[in-house]
From TrEMBL:
It comes from Riccia sorocarpa. This is Nucleotide-binding protein-like. Keywords: 4Fe-4S, ATP-binding, Iron, Iron-sulfur, Metal-binding, Mitochondrion, Nucleotide-binding, Signal, Transit peptide. It comes from the Eukaryota. One of its GO terms (molecular function) is 4 iron, 4 sulfur cluster binding. GO terms for biological process: mitochondrial respiratory chain complex I assembly.
């Protein structure tokens, strides 16, 4: 208590939820949501955990599309929302509560009250691990979320060239400032393996992830290739870990899930 940057009073638990892991990125478009969703499904299917997925990316909620879920959540007798479920994962997203094309013009306090509603206004039941798909970036909204939710740790998703730059470091620094341990770094779109000849190309460069993780004394959790099926299954709302469990990429997600 009283430590700078820390506000223990407001870090309330979410009823029924054992531990919470944030999936974050220094900037948008690196595959944070895709990774969050596939890890959540891997926790459920591979690790046999009871899993929740909280879409805290209120600016661009993608969980409804990625998990093929839509419609308004029903309310229980205490007027708490019941999460929507697919692939063994209970999900809650602002996308369930607003029109698809409605502009998400959120100011700081609105983000926090929306998040409050999604997290503690939901009747999750018993959950072993909750994955939080964070908004991209490292601004005030991300800091507030990290101060409000009792995060057990954060996973940082980055592309190789992003890692070479400063975004991932910024993410790491932000979580350290609010005393959230970094579980490790995942490199997404790491390499491309030609489906015809098997040749591997390092489209965005390669090797920087491991060394950056080492340099920052952080665990390197793994490399996810740039893969057509990952993109297609995301668009279809059938996460590859569930829809094509025997693929190489699904194996990589499962290994990373076990490491976490
Ligand atoms: P973010 O949450 O960081 O903004 P998304 O998860 O929405 O990023 O991913 C951005 C785009 O990249 C999406 O179209 C997604 O399908 C695609 N994508 C993400 N990871 C991969 C990958 N490993 N291989 C191919 N496409 C990917």
């Amino acid at each position: 208590p009283g430590e700078p940057g820390r506000s223990p009073m407001s870090r309330l638990n979410i009823a029924g939820v054992e531990s919470i892991i944030a999936v974050a990125s220094g900037k948008g478009g690196v595959g944070k949501s895709t990774t969050a969703v596939n890890l959540a499904v891997a926790f459920a299917l591979e690790c046999k955990l009871r899993v929740g997925l909280l879409d805290a990316d209120v600016y661009g909620p993608s969980v409804p599309t990625l998990m093929k879920l839509q419609g308004r959540p029903q309310l229980d007798k205490d007027s708490k929302m019941l999460p929507l479920e697919n692939f063994g994962v209970k999900c809650m997203s602002m996308g369930f509560l607003m029109d698809k094309d409605a502009p998400a013009v959120w100011r700081g306090p609105m983000v926090m009250s929306a998040l409050e509603k999604l997290s503690r206004g939901t009747s999750w039941g018993e959950i072993d691990v909750m994955v939080v798909d964070m908004p991209p970036g490292t601004g005030d909204a991300q800091i507030s979320i990290s101060q409000r939710l009792p995060l057990a740790g954060a996973v940082i998703v980055s592309t190789p060239q992003d890692l070479a730059l400063v975004d991932a470091r910024r993410g790491v620094n932000m979580f350290q400032k609010v005393d959230v341990p970094i579980v490790g770094i995942i490199e997404n779109m790491s390499y491309f393996k030609c489906p015809k000849c098997g040749e591997v190309s390092d489209i965005f460069g390669h090797g920087g992830a491991r060394s950056t993780s080492d340099e920052m004394r952080m665990e390197f959790l793994g490399e996810i290739p740039l893969n057509m099926a990952v993109r297609e299954t995301s668009d279809e709302g059938a996460p590859i870990v569930a829809s094509s469990p025997s693929s190489d990429v699904s194996g990589i997600y499962r290994i990373i899930a076990r490491r976490i």
